[in-house]
Write a structure and sequence with these properties.
alpha+beta, 7-stranded mixed β-sheet, 4-stranded mixed β-sheet, 22 strands
Length: 539
């Protein structure tokens, strides 16, 4: 759940605030067009739209620029407008998109993408390898880097370029070679073809990447399945792009509805005003028994994690002993079990189930209050004396009261629970001492929950933690094509996180949606974004 990058604990329509992708303020609602799966015909209300239209509840996007998106609500929309070179299908298999194929060198340090022939933007202009290179360089523009610039930092020279140490864009390991895009990496990165499936890598036209034109209004040039034709106070209207590389989508018009007039999502669906809407677990608990709505209830899988983090750049949590004490003082499993909703399960790892290479270990800090008190005393705070009052930005998560109670009981310290209107801005600019955040995968790989969230210098490392051992373990995992060796590297990284406690995994969770009878779709793969080009009405 991202800035919202994801979030769903109430039945209200989406909150306007957001943050980086795949992050989400845990207590807000992101009503999104997530995965649509086949639904058999039934006796629901009449279709909200005609046979070539669909009405989907959606959060109002913060931007139509794929570079600028950082929350799942915005990414779910930009992904329809701008296509990348690869994409994951409903079974989490990486598939060609604008690229027809790709090759990875034996040492894993070069990836060559081969573009399809005859690609064009929505205005008919040819889409070339130079457009891909120009688009991807925007992500690491030193003057205005993408919130997800960290996804590019394994590209040779990208880190020096985005930091301003080398102002020459030609120093970045990206180049066009005829119909190929050649990417040179700092270290082996066999997962780079998966990384570029992220909506941030959607290809924009030269007017944007070369000339600096802002993506605003409607009818701007796109590379994806849909173009924006209207931006209204209540909805965004998309029309099918007839020049889409895979052919014009079956559904000609998509209404992304952001305002349902103060009604609940369930009421709007029952009235026939929405064809797809995400709902709360509390609504799902009774809808499953409803004769009419029950058959239209869908479980929406999600490769998501809610986790707790510490600001490790300032006292008191710059001292590893303090973090270790907090980690050992809380019974994380019990707190999660008591505070979760019906669609969540307690977490045991920073990497959620369903991600290949995750392993089966339990990477929570061991619950040991005696050790916790000893560590806190060693750090200079025996029995919690003189420990400063620290802020705990909850993000709306319901389990924070249990965490605070365990800390006070076992360590004698008090934390001040806070809810900030702009949770993600606070994390980026002035992170609280302790905070909670949700994250949904950009791509289904362990590094999207490890290196992206905790790697030194990562734009999504809000706790500003740095560990040479952790970084080396991640590099080890990414430098091999052997799945067993890669898993060993990721597990070593998880061991370091468990030991040094820069973050603590809390819960994993799915969500629920109502999907109109007869609406056929791509099937949800857990990444939180549906390919709307695959939607259709039965019959």
């Amino acid at each position: 759940m991202a800035a919202l990058s994801r979030t769903r604990l109430t039945a209200a329509m989406p909150h306007p605030a957001r943050r980086p992708i795949r992050a989400f303020a845990v207590g807000l609602v992101a009503t999104l067009a997530i995965g649509l799966a086949f639904v058999a015909a039934g006796n629901g209300p009449a279709l909200a739209s005609g046979p070539t239209e669909v009405r989907i509840a959606a959060a109002a996007p913060t931007s139509f620029d794929p570079k600028a998106q950082s929350d799942i609500g915005t990414a779910a929309i930009t992904a329809q407008l701008y296509e990348s070179l690869t994409a994951f299908d409903a079974g989490l298999v990486l598939r060609p998109a604008l690229a027809r194929a790709w090759d990875v060198s034996e040492d894993g340090r070069r990836v060559v993408f081969h573009l399809r022939d005859g690609l064009t933007f929505s205005d008919g202009r040819a889409l070339t390898a130079a457009d891909v290179v120009g688009t991807w360089l925007r992500l690491v523009d030193p003057d205005s880097p993408s919130p997800l610039a960290s996804l590019m930092l394994d590209v040779k020279g990208a880190r020096d370029y985005v930091s301003g140490r080398n102002p020459d864009p030609a120093s970045v390991g990206l180049r066009a070679d005829g119909g190929d895009v050649v990417v040179d990496l700092e270290q082996p990165g066999a997962d780079f073809p998966a990384v570029v499936s992220s909506p941030s890598f959607g290809v924009v036209p030269p007017s944007v990447w070369r000339d600096g034109e802002a993506i605003t209004g409607s009818d701007f040039v796109v590379s994806g399945a849909y173009v924006v034709t209207d931006v209204l106070p209540t909805e965004v209207v998309l029309h099918a792009n007839p020049r889409y590389w895979a052919g014009a989508p079956t559904l000609n018009v998509v209404h992304l509805v952001a305002d349902i007039g103060g009604r609940s999502p369930v009421a709007a669906f029952e009235a026939g005003d929405l064809d797809y809407v995400e709902i709360s677990s509390s609504d799902a608990s009774w809808i499953r028994y409803d004769e009419t709505l029950g058959p239209q209830l869908r479980v929406v899988p999600s490769l998501s994690l809610t986790y707790l983090g510490f600001d490790t750049s300032r006292p008191p949590f710059d001292d590893v002993r303090v973090r270790q004490a907090f980690g050992a003082a809380v019974n994380w499993q019990r707190v999660a079990e008591l505070g979760i909703s019906s669609n969540e399960v307690p977490a045991t790892s920073m990497v959620p189930p369903g991600v290949a290479g995750r392993g089966d270990g339990d990477w929570l800090p061991a619950h040991d209050p005696a050790a916790a008190r000893r560590l806190l005393a060693e750090a200079g705070f025996p029995e919690g004396r003189d420990f400063p009052l620290v802020s705990f930005a909850t993000g709306g998560a319901g389990l924070t009261a249990g965490i605070a109670a365990d800390l006070e009981r076992e360590l004698g310290v008090t934390v001040q629970l806070e809810v900030h209107a702009d949770h993600f801005t606070r994390l980026s600019v002035d992170p609280p001492a302790i905070w909670i955040l949700g994250w949904i995968a950009d791509y289904p790989g362990p590094n999207d929950f490890l290196g992206v969230l905790l790697g030194t210098g990562s734009s999504n490392n809000y706790g500003r933690w740095s560990s040479d051992d952790f970084d080396a373990a991640i590099n080890e995992a990414l430098s091999t094509r052997d799945p067993a060796a890669a898993q060993a590297g990721f597990e070593r990284a998880l061991t370091i996180v468990q030991r040094d406690v820069p973050a603590v995994p809390l819960v994993y969770g799915d969500s629920w949606a109502l999907s109109r009878d007869g609406l056929l779709g791509a099937g949800q793969n857990g990444l939180g974004i549906v390919r709307m080009a695959g939607l259709a009405w039965a019959n």
